[in-house]
Amino acid sequence: MLEIRRTYCGLCHPRCGVRLHIENGRAVKVEGDPDHPISRGCLCARGEFLVEHLHHPARLNFPLKRTGDRGANEWRQVSWDQALDEVAEKLAALRDRHGPETLAFTHGTKRTYHWDGRRFYNLFGSPNLCGANNVCMCPTHAVEFATYGGFAMGELRRTKCVVLWGHAPSESNPILSFPEIVSAKGEGARLIVIDPRRIPEAELADLWLQIRPGTDLALMLGWLRLILEEGLYDRDFVASWTVGFEDLRAAVADYTPEKVAAITWLTREQVVESARCYATTKPAVITWGFGLDKQGVNATQAARARCLLRAITGNLDVPGGEALGWAEPIGNIIGDAEMELNEALRREQLAERVLRAARVSAL
Fold it and tell me: Is the pLDDT at 334 greater than 90, yes or no?
């Protein structure tokens, strides 16, 4: 008996809609769901191999306990109850003997550290979580929440200007973001691509800035200076929602178009034209991309400068601009912050966690 169930692919963040073909209780085929409002029937290569992933003979579906020496690859299957009980007993013994901070956890990039992991560690009493976030969204997340209370998500379908800064969605997000950018471009939106590589997006761009690798922050500071110098900022937004505006003006004063051009290997005209284009074409979006977060010593400051560009041009929380959709709970949905139970940790532990994050971001 064949049955088709509508579900989603859980192998990465977008959760594209799929139609799963079930035959005698076993998944036998997967295809994109054309009625899904976001992915609209598209699937990437990873999603197309969903059935093979599900039924792969080497997939681990039950707990195994080592029976031989470490490295001997000798195991036996045990029940979930036994596995959970043994792990819980060992963790409790370690906590009783050495204290809860004896336990530390490291993770990958947004695959294994959602609210459930944090909730467990907070209840266990350990603030010791770390991972590879410094190369995947951590500088951006930390800075954006500190600057304006949430992670900004550009509304690509309604924007009039898209800035792809170190971001190649034709490769990294071909199902969601890239089609939206192509659609926006078809509706007349301006496209600025800032990337040292001649990526496919550069061929579509109104302006392609083939920037010297690692100098993006200098260009951002140059944009900020020009926008302030020429009065292209949103005066109402600045007056109502910002602090330290004159300090910002002083901080970017040295980044003239000539200096920025010399640093970035761009021309003066490219620096000026791109800044004016972004500031005067509203609403506008600067998308998040790996390129900025992977810059090492400049990653945090580049994230800060991007925040400032969005803010002073009045592109925050406006239709077609940058929506702070993650800043507050939506409807009856319980957010990560509430699920994590961060209040279960002692105040001094929470403070230490913040200090550790600051030290990492400063490296």
Answer: no
Integer Cα distance of 345 and 348 in angstroms: 8
Contact, 131 vs 110, CB < 8 A?
no
C-alpha separations of 95 from 20, 113, 153, 344 in Å: 44, 21, 40, 16
309, 152 in Cβ contact below 8 A? Answer: no
**pLDDT at residue 115, as a whole number:** 63
Cα separation, 78 vs 65, whole angstroms = 7
Residue 360, pLDDT above cutoff 60: no
What tokens appear for 71 in the block? Answer: 């490295």
Is 39 among the domain residues?
Answer: yes
pLDDT at site 75: 95
Distance CA 285, CA 310 (A): 8
Is residue 101 located within the same domain as residue 150? no
In a domain, 199, yes or no: yes
> Are both 272 and 353 inside the same structural domain?
no
Cβ–Cβ < 8 Å for 216, 298: yes
- 192 and 300 part of one domain: yes
| Mean pLDDT value of segment 281-300 | 86
In degrees and rounded to multiples of 5, residue 21 shows phi and psi of -90, 125
Of 221-230, 330-339, 347-356, the least confident: 330-339
Q: Name the DSSP letter for residue 289.
A: -
Please report, for the domain that includes residue 40, its CATH number.
3.30.200.210
Same domain, 164 and 244: yes
DSSP per-residue string spanning 101-162: GG--EEE-SSSS-SHHHHHHHHHHT---EEESGGGTTHHHHHHHHHHHSS--EE-GGG-SEE
Q: For residue 356, is it within any domain?
A: yes
Mean pLDDT for all residues in the chain? 89
A 10 A CB-CB count for 269 gives 10
CA dihedral 354, 359, 361, 363 (to 10 degrees): -170
Mean pLDDT, to the nearest integer, of 330-352? 79
